[in-house]
Amino acid sequence: VIQYIMLKGEPGHQDAELRTEYSIKAVTAAGIKVEKLAEDTAYWDRPKAVEKMKAFYAKFGDKIEMVFCNNDDMALGVIEALRQEGYFTGNKYIPVLGVDATAPALQALEQGTLLGTVLNDAKNQGKATFDLAYALAMGKDPATSGWKIDGGKYVWVPYQKVTKDNYKQFK
Fold it and tell me: Euclidean distance between the first and final Cα of the chain, in Å?
């Protein structure tokens, strides 16, 4: 059983809720059992994540086996706080995961301090928006745009897993 901390973007925010739900589902679907030690919000903010992680570490210490963050900035804040506790030197390591595949996160992947992130694919989100708008502007059914429309109003653009093995293709 992996004991983890979850840092959410903000309460009730759709992206925060979905990222929280599906990051844990991905782990449990792989057959790994998890136990949540704590969850809090850091409002997508690196300094707030440093502060929250310091408090979590003071309370849970070495019980923390993994940290999930709803974005890369918070993940980098967690890494900063853990470095202050002596992590990421020698064999002292806690896996930290983020979302967005930002340039600083890719650098952290290269350095081995961030275990992984996922690309929030803005390029294809923009393409989907354009394709749907174009179809509508041309008087066509948006279903002909090439994008699957879920529930008559949602287009889901898949996230892409980014790890130390493939991060260079996202630079």
Answer: 34
Domains of the chain in start order, with CATH, are 2-121+158-170 (3.40.50.2300)
For 46-58, give one letter per residue: b (16+ CB within 10 A) or e. Answer: bebbbebbbebbe
Cβ-Cβ contacts under 8 Å for 57 (sequence gap 6 or more): 64, 81, 82, 85
CA atoms within 13 A on the CB side of 74: 27
Q: pLDDT tens digits, residue range 38-89? A: 999 999 999 999 999 999 999 999 999 999 999 999 999 999 999 999 999 9
Closest to 73 in 3D by CA, of 49, 39, 40, 41: 49
pLDDT digits over 81-121, tens only? 999 999 999 899 999 999 999 999 999 999 999 999 999 88
CB-CB neighbours of 73 under 10 Å: 24
- The whole-model pTM stands at 0.88
What is the β-pairing status of strands 2-8 and 96-97? Answer: unpaired
Reduced to 3 states, what is the DSSP secondary structure of residue 90? coil
